[in-house]
Amino acid sequence: MIIRQNTALEYEASPLIAAPHAFPTRLGGASGGALASLNLGLGRGDSPAALAENYARLGRAVGFDPARCVLTRQVHGDVIRRVTAADPAGLDAPRPDCDALITDVPGTALVIFTADCIPVLLYDPDTGAVGAAHCGWRGTALGLAEKTAQAMTAAFGSRPESLRCAIGPGIGLCCFETDGDVPAAMCAALGEAAAPFLHPAGAKWHVDLKGLNRLWLQRAGVRTVDCSDSCTACRTDRFWSHRRMGAARGSQGAVIVCKEVAK
Q1: Which partner for 197 in 155, 204, 205, 211 could form a disulfide, CB atoms 3.0-4.6 Å apart?
Q2: What range defines the domain where residue 106 resides?
Q3: pLDDT for position 263
Q4: What is the DSSP code string of the chain?
Q5: In this structure, is residue 181 part of a structural domain?
Q6: Number of domains in the chain
Q7: Phi-psi region for residue 211, left (φ > 0), alpha (ψ -120 to 50) or beta?
Q8: What CATH number corresponds to the domain at position 134?
């Protein structure tokens, strides 16, 4: 993963993904107060003007039109929505209840939100199709990353071995301390394969959500996975963290743009 800057705006990106995409930090936006400064989250009390400016700045830096964005209303599950040319787009459009989006419509930008959960972006260099998944611990236990890759195969004929995937900034093993319910859910889903990503710490556990999502992608047949080493809970100067900040925060996330592939 590499860090790119456009004036004060900063985001991480993977050199393995040719489509325009970004894992933005919280830097370089127009929002103020507890939302300072590149808040992307709707429904967090931000002004419409600040949100519009934040998306405009990010769009100029990454290369997408905010009017072509499709955003999620996340439900911490494994619902995947295929976005077509008929779907409404833009910041004021209705947001589907889902945790992952896929599309093969050129110019469409898929947006998911995070503030510790794990963002996963998928790109098919053969068809240009893209996907974006919000993988919290529940979505991780449900195998959402694997299911998103499978949905791209079913919808667009994507070959899993050709997909290029990137796992963005999220809470790391260092900071994701949980009770036993989280590791139990991972073991129920993955069996013994989950064990290397679950670390006992007294009565608690530390869980490697990024490693688990990489495992799910590999189980789907994906061979190329890039992974950010940024922990949102460690670096609240660069990211929002629900665990560290609670509700008084903005949201970062991830965006990926479908672009036409030359045949």
Answers
A1: 211
A2: 2-171+226-257
A3: 63
A4: -EEEEETTEEEEE-TT--S-EEEE-S-S-S--GGG-S----TTSS--HHHHHHHHHHHHHHHT--GGGEEE-B--SS--EEEE-TTS--STTS---B-SEEEE--TT-EEEEEESSSEEEEEE-TTT--EEEEEE-HHHHHTTHHHHHHHHHHHHH---GGG-EEEE-SB--TTT-EE-THHHHHHHHHHGGGGGGGEEEETTEEEE-HHHHHHHHHHHTT--EEEE---BTTT-TTTS--HHHHTTSS--EEEEEE--PPP-
A5: no
A6: 1
A7: alpha
A8: 3.60.140.10
Q: What is the pLDDT of residues 109-125, one digit of tens each?
A: 999 999 999 999 999 99
pLDDT, average across residues 242-255: 95
Residue 204 lies in a domain: no
- Sheet-wide strand order for 100-103: 80-83, 100-103, 130-135, 118-123, 164-167, 224-227
Tell me: pLDDT of 145 over 80: yes
Query: For 155-166, what is the mean pLDDT?
Result: 98
Contact 226, 16 (CB under 8 A): yes
pLDDT digits (tens, 9 = 90+) for 40-53: 999 999 999 999 99
Q: Which tokens belong to 134?
A: 């919000």
